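Honest question from a wet-lab person: if I give you the sequences of every part of a complex, can you actually get the arrangement of the whole thing, not just the pieces? Trying it with mine:
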Amino acid sequence: MEKVSQIIHVAVKNLFNANAEISLSRPDAKFGDYATNVAMQLAKSLGRNPREIAGELCELLRKNDEFSEVEIAGPGFINLRISAHKIASDLDEAFSQNNFGENNDGAGKTVVVEYPSPNMAKPYSVGHLRSGNQGWAARNLMLATGWNVITDNHLGDYGAPFGYWVLGFRKFSSDEQLASGGIYELGRVYVAIRAELKSEQERGDDTLAKEAQDWLLKLENGDLEAVELSEKFNRISLEHIHEIMGRLRISTDYELGEKFYVERGKNEVAKLLESGIAKRNEDGSVIVELDGFDTPILVQKSNGAALYATTDLATMVYREREWHADRAIIATGAEQVFYFQQLAALAKKIGVKTELTHLWFGVIDQLNDDGTREKMSSRKGVVLMEELLNVAEAKARQNTKGEKITDDDVRKIALGAIKFTDFSQDRRTNILFDWDQMFSLTGFSGPYVQYAAVRVNKILRDNADVSQAAVGENYDFAKEKDVLLKLAEYPEVVRTAANLLEPHRVAQYVYDLAKVMNRYYETTPIATDTVSQIEKSARLELLRKVSYVFAHGLQILGIEVPERM
RNA sequence: GCACCCGUAGCUCAGCGGAUUAGAGUACUUGGCUUCGAACCAAGUGGUCGCAGGUUCGAAUCCUGCCGGGUGUACCA
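Yes, you can. This is the full assembly:
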């Protein structure tokens, strides 16, 4: 596709001395293989009739042997056809260079991608499923477009939750219970103390709330007991997070949590106060006024303790200074959109050059009994990641029928189902958590694509020893045209998905490819006895490309292709 | 109140300026396994794209207003 765009670009330049952005679309097959509306775009700037422009362009394009058919249609569309054989040889050429689908748009630039950054106070819940999925996909898209990528798990290992933990632990738990319950015991006391705090607040009291804040302050001041408790709790929690991330098959290069940035953050705040950018309120809290915002950003609490803006401030500074980050991509929920707008404004105000991209995603909803939707919350009962993974694996295994498949393959299928669901829609759209849909193994789903890939791989494996004949001009690829056209789209899909950080485009693409492939497979024998040597060679080569693109596209989404399923 | 996001088939969602029939999955109806794996394929039923204006050769797509839902709006993250 890039090649076709380039040809048209040059033609436009030669004819009209204009630099046009060529957008190619894939119209209905009866119109052509590709279509462009450049003529209509140029009409305004050139002050000419679009059909006239299209006519001149067509005349020139017809002379190019790339196209088998060039036509004007409607108000000035140009429809193009390319012979299947030509597409096949263009693809051969594209594949002969390494890394089909990838590009170097980000060459020489460094990006920090932050995910899944779970709250350490509670067991890993589906509340952090999307930050892991979307963050991991963003990482892969950045890698595929040539960026130097640094990944960082910005752990929620600090802040008010710590105070709640300590209070809850002392009130409701013991060392014995903690030893046996681990993270689930910590989660239990966290929930219990939150309830207690809420009822206290309703009574108009704040004794416990103050006590929780005091513990946080003690921790900041290096109080031995506080430090010891913090380390104990965090160790338990981190172990759990690693286990879950391992099962999700995601990882990060760094785990610089909020705690890492507390001292640094306070130093930054002190500097801001000194330079007059920040100001201290009477109650001791510190704020920065931001242009265009009614609400200033609070960078230090009234009791002197740090909060998220304090640590995030230091995080931005650190990433620029230590990692020379040109860009930072932070995967968190839609609830934080406003805050990150403030943070970006703050960064700009203090001269941080790193471009801040808030990779936000919609909330996870649950269905109420009356059919309405509501955000999943601990009050309503969250689903834990551990449970989600267990159920998904059980369901995948149950579907294996007679096939003997390994535990590893079962896990790949389970993850394929869970992750693909996240990418089946725009990341900004709220997702409805529905057990059936989450584990869907048919239709527009991960396993559907995996299945298509497995079949292709099986054919390739079974025919690994088939001797290759030179295809050359001896085969027209007519039956393969749809598959070839679909393959040719891939690099553009990756580029767009990366530019917009919209991995659902890749999901849609691999699904379409699977569909085209299944259809092809249904009608065309690939390596049976009835197929000639030339056909066999041509078709197996096509399958090798399809197999590569399946694996590559799914890999971007964090999904692997099983051996069997 | 203000800001942001969202209202598209029964349900879950794509499409976000282009081409006589607005797509997919699911659900429902029907057909296809002695032929490289049926987690598949083929066909059908199903939509005043929330409502009303406007811009444009062309609007589900852009603008304005209204209605409905969600999220946020400094000491949670």
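Two things worth pointing out. The first strand of chain A starts at residue 24 and ends at 25. Chain A has a mean pLDDT of 91.
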